From TrEMBL, chain B:
PROSITE patterns: PH_DOMAIN. It holds the Pfam family PH. PANTHER family: PLECKSTRIN HOMOLOGY DOMAIN-CONTAINING FAMILY J MEMBER 1, SESQUIPEDALIAN. This is Pleckstrin homology domain-containing family J member 1. It comes from Periophthalmus magnuspinnatus. SUPFAM superfamilies: PH domain-like. GO terms for biological process: endosome organization; receptor recycling; retrograde transport, endosome to Golgi. Residues 15-108 form the PH domain. One of its GO terms (cellular component) is early endosome. InterPro entries: Boi1/Boi2-like, PH-like_dom_sf, PH_domain.
Amino acid sequence: MKIDEKVISYFESSNTPVDKQGYLYKKGEIKTSYQKRWFVLKGNLLFYKEKPADRDLIGVIVLEGCTVQLCESDEQFAFSLVWNEPGLRTYKFAAEDQESLEDWIKTLLSANHQYLALLLSDMERAYREALEGPSNEPTKTNPFIMPYFPISEAGRASTFPSLRSSSSQPTFASSSSGAGHSLGPGFRVGPMADPVLQPSAAISAKPTLRKSPKLWSKKATNAVNTQPSSTFFGDFAGVILEPEDEFVKMHEEFGKEIKKLISHWATRGPDGQENLIDFS
Amino acid sequence: MRFNEKELISLSRQPSEKAAELGMRGPKKGDVLKKRLVKLVVNFLFYFRTDEEEPIGALLLEQCRVEREDSLTFSIIFLDEAERKYQFECDSEEQCGEWIDSIIKASYEFMRKNLIFYRTEIHKLTGKDPLEQYGISDETRFQVSNGLQLKARETSSL
């Protein structure tokens, strides 16, 4: 499969926010020794090169579908990016110290697109609620029927431009009428109807999950129907997410995972080695 | 440039709301319109030959502009020096509009900016930082002071 390298390189060099950067040791793909590389995280892309000032990238890792795990290794401060499907790889890394290790793990765990999508959907809802004022109680009884939103123009940020649209415009995420998503009065709006959310394999694999039928409409012609492979969430596969609680739940799961990692580190002795034998 | 190809191919197989057969024309002069199964997954646009399992290619939908060319056609223009342009022909005006919408909204950078916008606005309206409840107020990626403007100051030309 081809990838448009120019686009990728350009994105890395462009003046877009860097979420994290620093040196990490990466286990070689051909040679098995660890090599020191400069990593730059932007969004769900982890770029790497030899040195910070280098213009040429050695490579990029797309952080979708993987979990971040501590790994048992001769190397200290080791962690890995794991794709759980057969035939897919594991990238092994080692950080320079404990602090760097923890920070990289935490950051990489939340770098995927879905995390941001869910958080954004939450924020959209919170924004709508804030616009309506404190007197309005959002109905929580049936989470799958969103409160009726009469769409008034007042107070709305600019509608979505349908012609010249830069990907960098922070407009309110409602579509203009030209896009076929006209939001007239009486139109039910909810996070699952929002095209920003991409259904994850985790959700699609569980048909018992109640969802707005809109999400699974056959509007998309020639949709490639394949067996949902192992989940995006990997270790969090057991979490069935409901729209309104999705981000909160996922965030809690991340928190638990991090607490687990922290307590695991706590059992290790000061020299980083686990004290398996009590020598006292 | 190395990249995790197998994992990306696996990503291309994830279910997507946006998958359709469109006419696609590449960025090079003289490239002709070809029928492709185009699929949007996260911030990548994969394109397949119809009935093939493995995509021919993947486009990262960051640092690009999406433009309507005419009622049925839209293009994705990358903001590099060459301003490489990929064109897509749809079956209907409605479909065209929906694709434009979806592609713009799929960009990570676009989503991030929207999030920062909402964060700021909610704070203005309620006096509270909505990210505090998640304990992520301090995360680098959501900072307002990141040099990002809340208004759409960034233009396509850099």
